[in-house]
Amino acid sequence: MARAKGVFPGGDPFGPLLPRGTMARACVRSADAPIIISGIGSQTTDTFYLAGGTYRSEWSAWGERPEFPPCTHSIELMAADPVNGETPLGHVSDLANLVHVPATGASSTSYVYNVKPGGYYLDVNSACGWQVALSLT
Questions:
Q1: Among 57, 94, 117, 133, which residue has the least CB neighbours within 10 Å?
Q2: What is the CATH number of domain 35-136?
Q3: Residue-range domain boundaries for the chain
Q4: pLDDT over 90 (residue 52)
Q5: DSSP per residue over 22-78, as a string?
């Protein structure tokens, strides 16, 4: 099960458990607050708004049980309007690309530069539980 981090202030710091099969949802509080999205397995997220500029991407992923083999994890940031992407299909950036994540988890931080204002979504191809935070820098 994945957790929706930061959804309920003052509650569990990792938020409530999300049942298996729950679609990922973006948690957005204000333009300055990070966008936090979590889920389990491969999926395309709901569209969320980015104001443009440089964004810090922080992702983490983990396996279901410690005795399981590593899971493979990839995340693409995609523009809802392909005009805002780097390719005709709307690709903006690979946040993770075929990372082999041990069951105990892994994380990484990167930056996405020159993001245009508009709608975006994550295309996640993963056998892991995962969470992504995007913060305007």
A1: 117
A2: 2.60.120.380
A3: 35-136
A4: yes
A5: PPPEEE--STTSPEEEEEESSEEPPPEEE-SEEEEEEEEEE-SSTTSPPEEEEEEEE
